[in-house]
Inverse folding.
């Protein structure tokens, strides 16, 4: 794999805290809620499809220190002052899910960041995106902003068919929905793929699961330098977020 034009660009931003308000609520699926926030986004930047902002929620225990969680900017329009966030709803509900479910139009949410972006170049021969529900905002953003004709394969693991989403993309996309009841389906799907050596593989989801998928990709003989894996959450540890590569 050529290294000169395939190294991700890392960009740092000045960290700024903002006060936004809920402008719109959209239930995408039974377990995915979209909130469109409005407010002053002057200077807001997000160059990478898997960037994250810090959301600051009231402490459920009544403490003075807010509870922080990382979320992907699903879409944003600085000129209109709009930021879109998708919330993967789960049980038992943590602070983010609790807040999102009850948040009404006009509700205030404070955010910080992004602190920076990691921008992967468009020079790879193929892109493979693998993730669970928590990764869908990043996957959807990548598909909708990808160059026309770019080869992208998606392996999206969700609870059932009701959780499937529709994405509009100009990429040459092969989107495959896998259901959690068949836990090994993602490994079977990976084995069935024929990927060029010059491929970028992006994995995100529960940390132990993401590690397992990454290990399987290594065993398949893919170049480790072309694999980025992240734990977007960790079973039993609220608020965990791990970079695995």
């Amino acid at each position: 794999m050529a290294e000169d034009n395939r190294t991700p660009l890392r960009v740092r931003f000045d960290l700024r805290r903002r006060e936004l308000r809920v402008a719109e609520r959209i239930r995408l699926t039974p377990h995915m809620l979209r909130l469109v926030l409005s407010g002053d986004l002057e200077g807001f930047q997000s160059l990478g499809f898997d960037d994250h902002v810090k959301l600051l929620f009231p402490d459920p225990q009544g403490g003075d220190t807010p509870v922080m969680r990382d979320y992907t900017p699903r879409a944003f329009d600085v000129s209109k002052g709009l930021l879109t966030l998708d919330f993967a709803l789960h049980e038992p509900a943590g602070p983010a899910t609790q807040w999102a479910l009850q948040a009404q139009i006009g509700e205030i949410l404070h955010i910080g960041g992004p602190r920076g972006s990691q921008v992967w170049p468009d020079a790879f021969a193929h892109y493979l995106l693998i993730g669970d529900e928590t990764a869908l905002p990043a996957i959807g953003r990548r598909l909708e902003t990808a160059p026309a004709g770019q080869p992208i394969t998606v392996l999206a693991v969700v609870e059932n068919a009701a959780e499937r989403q529709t994405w509009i993309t100009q990429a040459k996309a092969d989107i495959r929905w896998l259901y959690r009841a068949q836990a090994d389906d993602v490994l079977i799907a990976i084995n069935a793929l024929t990927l060029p050596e010059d491929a970028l593989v992006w994995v995100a989801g529960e940390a132990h699961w993401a590690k397992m998928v990454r290990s399987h990709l290594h065993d398949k003989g893919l170049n480790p330098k072309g694999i980025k894996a992240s734990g977007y959450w960790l079973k039993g540890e609220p608020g965990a977020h791990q970079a695995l590569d």
Notes: The first helix runs from residue 95 to 102. The two ends are 18 Å apart (CA to CA). Helices lie at 95-102, 136-145, 185-192, 207-219. DSSP finds four helices and 15 strands in the chain.
